[in-house]
Amino acid sequence: MFTGIVQGKARIRSIEKLEGLWRLQVVFPSDQSATSCGASVAVNGACLTVTAINSAELAFDVMQETLRITTLGQLNEGDWVNFEHAARIGDEIGGHLLSGHVHGVATVAAVTNTPNNTNIAFTVPEPLRAYIFHKGYIGVNGASLTVGHLTPDGFSVDLIPETLRMTTFGELADAADASQRAEVNLEIDSQTQVIVDTVERILRQKAGLG
């Protein structure tokens, strides 16, 4: 499990495209010797398993299904990603609990910058929109964010300068043209998903539809 509090940005040093998977070599901002092989790390919100450790560098094997349903398949060498090590018992839950299981990909629709705030709007696949509520939680590239506003085809969030500094959202905010259509990984809040699905099932049963 993860808290959705991004611990920093890491850089993709190399990508080895093997049959059935990609092998990522990722450089972190500090020594990773305390990390163990087999440990879980969220990379842009996707839970990956550490396969090798070399000082500040970790390796991950990413299977085809993960490449298909997330934005990890769009990564290039030199790209920056958000990361968070798995939470430990006793850690502060400053965001909301995330599993690192990406539900889908959203597209950046618009970026609005003001002196002390950045608003980013996202277009969300229709099947996921039922789980997004005003002031609800959502995981975006591994960051626990509060939904600021609902839009006809998705939602928007408001980000403070510290969030932009610590995450890759700063690169999105600096983009001169939102029409570049950058994409991000989404993880829906699990409690919200259970409530919505349960209510819909009960309503269908009462209506005699299943």
TrEMBL record:
<feature type="domain" description="Lumazine-binding">
    <location>
        <begin position="1"/>
        <end position="96"/>
    </location>
</feature>
<dbReference type="InterPro" id="IPR001783">
    <property type="entry name" value="Lumazine-bd"/>
</dbReference>
<feature type="repeat" description="Lumazine-binding">
    <location>
        <begin position="1"/>
        <end position="96"/>
    </location>
</feature>
<dbReference type="InterPro" id="IPR023366">
    <property type="entry name" value="ATP_synth_asu-like_sf"/>
</dbReference>
<feature type="repeat" description="Lumazine-binding">
    <location>
        <begin position="97"/>
        <end position="193"/>
    </location>
</feature>
<dbReference type="InterPro" id="IPR026017">
    <property type="entry name" value="Lumazine-bd_dom"/>
</dbReference>
<feature type="domain" description="Lumazine-binding">
    <location>
        <begin position="97"/>
        <end position="193"/>
    </location>
</feature>
<keyword id="KW-0677">Repeat</keyword>
<dbReference type="InterPro" id="IPR017938">
    <property type="entry name" value="Riboflavin_synthase-like_b-brl"/>
</dbReference>
<protein>
    <recommendedName>
        <fullName>Riboflavin synthase</fullName>
        <ecNumber>2.5.1.9</ecNumber>
    </recommendedName>
</protein>
<dbReference type="Pfam" id="PF00677">
    <property type="entry name" value="Lum_binding"/>
</dbReference>
